[in-house]
Amino acid sequence: MPGPVAHRSPQLETVDPLFTEPGSSIQPSQSASSLREDSAAFQSLPCVLYECNAAFEFTYVSENISELFGLESKELIGNPLLSDQRIPVEDLVLLSNRLGELEHLNKRTSLMHRMLTRRGLPFWVAHSLWKASLNDTTVVRGCIVPMDYNGRLHSSEQAVISRFVHKMGNHFQLLNLVVNSLRRTVPESRETLMLQETVEKAIELTRGFSDYNQAPTCLSRVELMDILQATAMTRRSSFEKKGIHFDSQIHASVNGAVIQADPYLLELAIGHVLQNALEATEAGAQVTLQARVKCSGDRASAASISVIDSGCGIDENALANVVVPFFTSKKNHDGLGLSMAARFIEIHGGILRVTSAQGKGTEVEIVLPLEAEGQSCLL
Questions:
Q1: Same fold flag, 32-149 and 220-369
Q2: Smaller CB count within 10 Å for the chain: N or C?
Q3: Homologous superfamily of the 32-149 domain (CATH)
Q4: Which residues, at least 6 apart from 139, have a Cβ–Cβ distance to it below 8 Å?
Q5: What CA–CA distance (Å, rounded) separates 48 from 68?
Q6: What fold characterizes domain 220-369?
Q7: What pLDDT, on the 0 to 100 scale, is given for residue 249?
Q8: Do residues 364 and 353 make contact, with C-beta atoms less than 8 angstroms apart?
Q9: Does the structure show a pLDDT above 50 at 34?
C-alpha cells in the first residue's frame, strides 16, 4: 500500500457539510483535550485527527487541517462535512458501510477513498476511524491522511496480469481447436454448440480484461478538441444505423484546451461511454455529447465532458456499482465498458461520475485536469 506523502494535498477550498444534517449544534466533548494532546505530536505529519459524536458531528478537528485540506477547524465544529459534493457516490457508499460495520470490526476500521477538490478532480485519502466510550457516551475518532496515490495501482502489477492473460489466451485457443475438431468428427449436437459458444465467450472476456488492464504507452500534450472530434466521428455512424439522433455540443471554450494524455486510451474511454449510451437508447431518441471548460478565476482549470442519453436509465440501487468491473444488469454483457472508461479517466487524473433516473435517461460526466498553464478562460 502506498504511504503518506509530506507535500500539501489539493485544497478543498470551501467548507462543505459532512457527516450529519445541517443545523445541528453540539458542545466540544470532554475527550477533545486528550485528542488535542495526541494531535500536537502529529502536527508535523500529514495527518488530520478528528472526533465526532454518534451522529458524526465534529466536536474536534486538529488545526493542521488548514495546511492539508484548506479548511479551518473552527468552521467544522458542529457542521456536517462529508457530502455528495466532496466524495464520489461509490466512495460515500463504501464509507457509510464501514461506519455501520464498526461494531462488528472490533470498533476499528480503515479504508482508502477519494475526495474532490472544488474543481471536481479527485485525490486520495487514507481514512482510519474507531469507536470509543467516554462517560457512557459513544464517540468516533478518526485520522485522515492525504495520499500520493496513482489510480493505476487499483490493478495488480501490469506485467503479471499481462502474462496471465497471455497464458489464458493460449489455453482458450487450444480448447477452441479441440472443439472445432470434435464438431467435424461427431454429429453436431446441442452440447457441442454450447461448448463452442462458451469457449468464444471466455475468449471475448479474456480480451476484455486485457483491454481493461492497459496502461498509457506515452503521455503527451494533446488538444482535447481533437480527441472529442475523432471519437464523435467514429461513433456517429453507429447511432445513425440504429436510428438515434446524435448531437455534438462542444463549447468554444474547449478550443485550445490542452491535456497530458494517451490519446488512444482517452478516446477509448469516451468511446465506451458513448457505446453504453447507444445500447441504452431506443431508435428515435437522442444522445448528446457535451463538453466545456471549467474556470478557476480567469484561468481554465478542468474540462467537463458529458454524454447524456434519453434511454432506460439505471436503478438507484445499482448506481454505486456501475463502474465496478464485471457488474452489469444487461444480458450477455461482461460489465467492463464503464469500469474500463472510469479506470482510463482515473489514470489521467480525472473522474467519471454517473447520474441517472429509471425511465428518464442517464448522464455520464467526465472531469479531466488541464495543463497547469491552462489558457485564459473563455466563457
A1: no
A2: N
A3: PAS domain (3.30.450.20)
A4: 29, 31, 51, 52, 53, 54, 59, 131, 132, 133
A5: 8
A6: Heat Shock Protein 90 (3.30.565)
A7: 92
A8: yes
A9: yes
